[in-house]
Amino acid sequence: MEAIDPWAAPRVFGEVMLTIEDLKAKIPLPEAARRLGITGFPDGPGKMCSPIRQGDENPSFSVWQGDKGLVWTDHGTKESGDQITLIEKVRGVSAKEAIRMMREWAGDLAPVITRKDGKPQPRIVKVYDYVDADGKLKHQTLRYEPKMFRQRRPASEGERAGNKQASRDREGNWWLWTLAGITPVLYRLPQLLANPELVVGIFEGEKDADAAAAADGKIAATTSPMGAGKWRDEYTQALAKRRVVIVPDRDKAGQDHGLAVAKALRDKGGCQVRIVRWELLWPSAPMDGKVDFYDWMDVWRKSA
How does the average pLDDT of the chain come out, rounded? Predict the structure, then answer.
């Protein structure tokens, strides 16, 4: 894989993108702070405030003129930097993601090259809501293309979780990009609780759970956040005494996850549990690579 220097001028086939210095000129430090939802940020050098750390009574944040533009310093944490490092600090993201955000704000929308094959930075294609028993949003899973996932939860201005600071999106909503500090819930929890007579189908991923729920109303479909290996005792308690069918992905991680969930539900939840066997569900499935429930549903639809 080709190593990419995020500070170098980017390369795009047939196009010239803004350099890092151009981006900083188009989105000055105070503007970046405003877009991050930071209130009271200094608009020039020498001014003091405390916009980053919640609960500070004494001013501990300053902006000063560096050799290449305005620079911020958090005197409480001894951190210092420019627009990009401020985004990293507040949003808890990598330098590449911070640069991507700067490009979006600057209207420099050409794809950011991150790999030798020329694929662009991931973009959000689906947001899955996880709500509590009362239907209140607890947290979300965001699916990106190229395929990756991130977790976030509602927050308020100034809220922190560990080293993560709440940030505001373009719609004015505040989020913490971590599930630390809360107890996550099962996907489609209200539907599970409202239909105790139904068999619970545990799938590996929200996409599979949604497909199963749409295909068969006699199954209460769900999944757990963050994928295989992340089952919690709280999920077992929510499904205590239920009849459960587990549909793991056909790979080692999925099979191990399915067995671990089945053991927890039987031993700690008193559940009746069955695990789907792929060689019976889909005997003609490709032998190479990962197979999941959505793949099977897609083939089934095309053959119906």
Answer: 83
Q: Which H, E and C letters describe 130-196, residue by residue?
A: EECCCCCEEEEEEEEECCEEEEEEECCCCCEECCEECEECCCCCEEECCCCCCCCCCCCHHHHHHCC
Q: Which of 276, 280, 284 is nearest to 204 (CA)?
A: 276
- Domain 20-106 is of which CATH architecture? Alpha-Beta Complex (3.90)
CATH number of 189-303: 3.40.1360.10
Q: CATH 3.40.1360.10 residue ranges in the chain?
A: 189-303
Query: Where in the chain is CATH 3.90.580.10?
Result: 20-106
Above 70 in pLDDT, residue 14?
A: no
Give the tens place of pLDDT for each residue, 88-138.
888 878 888 888 888 888 877 655 545 556 666 677 888 999 999 999 999
